[in-house]
């Protein structure tokens, strides 16, 4: 009678372990699906990031060109000041141009801040995705280890049952 209870308990334990493994398998599948969806969701952001990086590089090139133009204009102011009687009028014109270019430069710098902040946000999301992927891998490894343990326990139980059957004969 006690042997029957042991077998029933073992069967219940095995069934419980199998149910637990199936539950873990389902959790792993959901985690894998979630990780895949996160990766798919991040792809447009990566494309947007690359586009913004290109725009940032173009804006920086324009800023450098504007700085070159400003430098050239400042040199012209110095040269014009020595050669022309109406130095003050020419200086005023060039100061207006410089102020205008500086305002444009300031506007461009403000425009550059938005892609930079977006880039930083995308970097944070990429780091979060990497962390999530690492967690998924950890869950997978843990589940595989638990599965191996469960299989080992099942094999031991079968061996014990076979041995017990052999002894009874």
TrEMBL record:
| Keyword Coiled coil carried by entry | yes
Query: What UniProt keywords apply to this chain's record, in alphabetical order?
Result: Coiled coil
**Coiled coil located at which positions?**
11-76
**What is this protein's record name?**
Uncharacterized protein
């Amino acid at each position: 009678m006690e042997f029957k209870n042991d077998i029933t308990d073992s069967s219940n334990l095995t069934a419980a372990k199998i149910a637990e493994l199936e539950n873990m398998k389902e959790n792993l599948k959901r985690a894998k699906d979630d990780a895949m969806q996160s990766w798919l969701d991040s792809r447009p952001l990566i494309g947007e990031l690359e586009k913004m990086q290109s725009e940032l590089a173009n804006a920086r090139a324009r800023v450098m060109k504007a700085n070159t133009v400003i430098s050239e204009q400042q040199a012209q102011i110095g040269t014009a000041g020595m050669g022309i009687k109406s130095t003050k009028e020419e200086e005023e014109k060039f100061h207006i141009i410089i102020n205008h270019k500086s305002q444009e430069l300031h506007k461009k710098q403000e425009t550059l801040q938005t892609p930079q902040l977006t880039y930083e946000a995308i970097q944070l999301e990429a780091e979060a995705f990497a962390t999530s992927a690492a967690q998924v891998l950890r869950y997978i490894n843990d589940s595989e280890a638990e599965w191996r343990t469960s299989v080992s326990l099942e094999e031991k139980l079968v061996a014990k049952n076979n041995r017990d059957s052999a002894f009874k004969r």
